[in-house]
Structure formats: structure tokens, C-alpha cells
Amino acid sequence: MPFEIVRKDLSEVTADAVVRFVNTGTGVRVFHRGSFPPCLMAKELEFAFTPRAVVLIEVSLPQGGDGEFNPALLLTQAYRQALTAAVREHCGSVAIVWPKFSLPGISEDDLLSILVQGERELLTEQELWVTLVVEDVRRLRLSDSLINAVSRYIKDHYIQALPREKTGHVLAKVKNFIAPVEAELEENEELTDIPAEETCLFKEQEEAQAPSNKFYAEPKMRSVDPRLFEQLIAQHEESFSESLLRMIDERGMSDPQVYKRANLDRKLFSKIRIQKDYRPSKTTALALAIALELNLDELKVLIGRAGYALTHASKLDIIVEYFIGQGIYDLFQINEVLFVFDQPLLGGRSF
């Protein structure tokens, strides 16, 4: 059940069902498009749908009570019921709307943890696309210490593009370096214009002047073992899919363990397994590397099989590098940070 966070208006999100939080009523209520009960809320309910959604699931806020009131626990239970209701309604995808008001007794940090934890609990049970829709990223707050640490790491490692004027100076230096080489190439081309008769004459003179010595004998060609040659070619041509499957076997992991930890769905992973030459997107390749908990060198090898490399000109790459360097392979946490820094998320719908 892949999980992603998007910064969009709800009307731009594609999903079969919409889950939203309300501060009226109790429990979980399910509405179907075109079959609202006669009430004054019909227009508001219609507005809450995405263009494709056919089901609207409302989760009521936990209300205050006695001393044993635990709003986080109640919201966790209600949220789980909402996702279960989406599965019961045969929905393949769900959009969760970030509440536009405060939840009593629940901070926004706690709310994000509840939503993510709910995803993890259902991840092993259901195949469901879940999208958290956050229209205002400022409402999504993470640990200040984590964000500050990542910000410092980016500042220390990020390489910005050279300004146009500096780029011009660099190109000028390169041109000055290449000019002598070009001149030499032109000279060689002039030599090739010598008539064939003169060339043969020069060759005869050189052969006559060459000393008759065993040290000037023609080098002998050594034979190459065909089996060794084929083995080297096979190793060199190992595809991304072959490398991935080999690494999975070496770690004793199962396919579901890997694609669920990588925030991917079963269909995409099956495509990677079946198609030897399948080339995934970079975010998918990185997600799989993190799911396998590869170190930095191993990650570079794996994504290199798909034609990618890490670069300090990309904040996405630097953030991934930071988490791997810290030994953190929690893809949900990594995606939360990537979202805050306005970077593409790993896994999800990025095939």
C-alpha cells in the first residue's frame, strides 16, 4: 500500500475515495456520490469529492471526556476504520485531506505520526494507494532538530549551478586547452593527404633502415579463453533487475518485504522482476536501495545499473545521502523530509 504526500488542491488529486476530518458527529460516516441524504450539507459534501472519487469518508474528531480520554488513540482507531471502510467499498486509492483546523489534544506533529503509523499497520494487509493532501506545507511540521540537521548537511554539500559569466570563463579555458589538440589533429589530416605512391616509398625506406634484430619482431597475438570472456561480459551486463534480485536473495528477504518497504505496489515490482531490462525511475531505484538497507557504495552500484548516479547538484540526492550516512532507512521519514524541502518523494507513483 504505497503512501505519498502531495502539495495540491484536492480537486487536482486522483483517488477513488476521500477521507476528511470533521468536528461534528461521531465515528466514521460513508457517503456515496449522488446518493446524499436530504440535508443542507449536500452541496458541501459534493464539494468535498475529487473529480474521480465516488466515496467520501468522514472521520469525526475525538471529543473531550473524562480523565481517561486519549485523543490520539481514538483518532488512530477512527483513521483505521476509515481506511478499512475504503477497502470495504472496493476503493483502490484514497486521498486524505489534512485538517484545516486544530484537533483537540493532538498536535500537528502527533497527527502526522498517527497518519503514518496507520499506513504502516495496514501496509502488510491491504493493497491501497494512500495520498496525504497538504495544501499548505507550513502546516506540516517535523522535528526541528532533524530539519536543522538536514539543512546544515545540504548547505555543506550542495553545489549550485555556475552563473552564466563564470560558465563562460570556464568554457574559454577549455577552448584554450583544446586548441593545440585541434591543431595537431589538423596536421595529421594534412599528412593523410600525401599521395599513396609517396607513402609506399616512405614505408620502403623505413623498412630498409630498420635494423634486423629480434627485438623488433612483430608482437605475437595471445589467445583469449572464450569462457572467461563470456563470464566477464555477463558480469558487465548485469541489469538493474538482475542486480536487485541478486541482492534480495543475498539478504534472505522476500519480494513483499522489499516492495512494501520501498513504498511500491506489487504490480510494479512484478514488472521489474519479469522484465530483465526494465529501467525504473530514479526515485524508484533509490526507494528499492533504501528498502534493502544498502550502504552508500552499494546504493551507487545498484542505481548505476539503471543509469543513475548521486550528485551534489541535487538536493534529493544529498538528503538521501544524509539519511544513509546516519543509518536511517525509514522511507516514510525520508519522504516527510523530502516533502518539506519540496523534493520528489521516493517510491509511490514514480515508476
Summarize the structure.
This protein has 351 residues and is an alpha/beta fold.
Describe this structure in words.
It comes from Holdemania filiformis. InterPro entries: Macro_dom-like. This is RNase III inhibitor. There is one protein chain. The chain is an alpha/beta fold and 351 residues long. 50% of the residues lie in helices and 9% in strands. The protein has helices spanning 42-47, 71-88, 108-123, 144-157, 164-191, 196-209, 226-236, 240-250, 255-261, 266-274, 282-291, 296-305, 315-325, 331-340; strands spanning 3-6, 17-22, 28-32, 55-60, 93-97, 129-133. A six-stranded mixed beta sheet has the order 1-6-5-2-4-3. The longest helix has 28 residues, at 164-191. The radius of gyration is 31 Å and the shape is globular. It starts with a strand and ends in an 11-residue tail after the last helix. Mean pLDDT is 76; it is low at 170-185.
Attribute tags:
2 domains, six-stranded mixed sheet, alpha/beta, Macro_dom-like, 14 helices, RNase III inhibitor
The number of domains is 2
Major β-sheet strand ordering? 1-6-5-2-4-3
- Give the percentage of residues in beta strands: 5-15%
Helix percentage: 40-55%
Order of helices and strands: EEEHEHEHEHHHHHHHHHHH
Gyration radius from CA atoms, angstroms: 31 Å
Uncertain runs: 170-185
Shape assignment = globular
* Mean pLDDT over all positions: 76
